[in-house]
Amino acid sequence: xxxxxxxxxxxxxxxxxxxxxxxxxxxxxxxxxxxxxxxxxxxxxxxxxxxxxxxxxxxxxxxxxxxxxxxxxxxxxxxxxxxxxxxxxxxxxxxxxxxxxxxxxxxxxxxxxxxxxxxxxxxxxxxxxxxxxxxxxxxxxxxxxxxxxxxxxxxxxxxxxxxxxxxxxxxxxxxxxxxxxxxxxxxxxxxxxxxxxxxxxxxxxxxxxxxxxxxxxxxxxxxxxxxxxxxxxxxxxxx
Length: 239
Known about the structure:
Layout: E1 2-4, E2 9-16, E3 23-27, H1 41-44, E4 49-53, H2 70-83, E5 90-95, H3 97-108, E6 113-119, H4 126-130, H5 136-143, H6 152-165, E7 173-178, H7 186-199, E8 206-211, H8 218-221, H9 223-238
Parallel strand pairs: 3-4, 3-5, 5-6, 6-7, 7-8
Antiparallel strand pairs: 1-2, 2-4
Helix pairs in contact: 2-3, 3-6
């Protein structure tokens, strides 16, 4: 479906069983769109209703005149959910940069969120703490990637927004960390896992899982790990 929000149309799909469980809302990584969930969507849709969508300017969605920062993306997602008449509470699932968006959503609209899953999501201190430990070639490639969805400055603004909005959440949280990142040394991999584990501190009800054989796209390399995490979170929400 194409949903008209304030200044563009967003492409979205609502699939699954309306079985009384909260709707699962999936948010993809930087420059990615709804197809990134193809490996897991059929099984997840048997657990509950699932909304996947293309953020503005990606996939089949129109471009937006709003800045491409997390705060603006969250506002557009809220408009989409309201226009599609998809009622809260939601279980939010965010991959990579999508984890920045879903964390901020859970923080700023806590009454609408009942659970959160972060799949190898970007930590708020990534550029200060992690990126400088990587080879110069990796750093240059990282900094040049911001051409698909917002620019480098907007991405940095999103991390700043995440840092400034950080506070304790009262929802169950599962953090999945990729244990076999491409181009990472053993030291870098250990630091990455450590920083992912620290994200668990934002919730008093959290679980940390390392997907030992997975690169950044855990949903492709270990889809069963993502599906199992969502099942676990649904059970916790029911408790």
